[in-house]
């Protein structure tokens, strides 16, 4: 079966920009305080639940993966881009990083205690999000947590350059209520939301959602 064209575009684009991305994107310590607080809260919930490892999906160069590890979380990273995975392995050799797609996770049913999708779903066309969120539900253990963070809005962006390099991916910004609906349609229960207006380095509205897979009755 042929790979969807959007996955090819994302992989090739991030392979191209990987080194420049590391130079230009600030580390987790420089995030706004509220985003850091959401990451810390998610880390505490996943750690204390003790349901399994956390997968950082779309981990890029591994900085947020390492941030969670520093908060005491058993975590590993997954990214579509081989170049990004290589940078992550080089920077954090004590952590595990693998290549993979959110559309078809190479994990067992109910294997994960948590999933982090941190600014990693906006390149997914809206019609593919139900498949992605179904994979989140499949791989999460009952009672497991998801933290989703990304840009929100009503835009389809088609940049030709990013991080100083040519790219071919697109970005799809959806309203926060639509993201909540999609997660709940996948069987995940949203328990907290945070909406942030543009400010500092971020020039678009962005948001975080904390969700949980219901425990088995």
From TrEMBL:
InterPro entries: Methyltransf_25, SAM-dependent_MTases_sf. It comes from the Bacteria. CDD domains: AdoMet_MTases. GO terms for molecular function: methyltransferase activity. One of its GO terms (biological process) is methylation. Residues 54-144 form the Methyltransferase domain. The keyword Methyltransferase applies. Keywords: Methyltransferase, Transferase. The keyword DNA-binding does not apply. PANTHER family: TRANS-ACONITATE 2-METHYLTRANSFERASE, TRANS-ACONITATE 2-METHYLTRANSFERASE-RELATED. This is Methyltransferase domain-containing protein. It comes from Streptomyces spongiae. The lineage of its organism: Bacteria, Bacillati, Actinomycetota, Actinomycetes, Kitasatosporales.
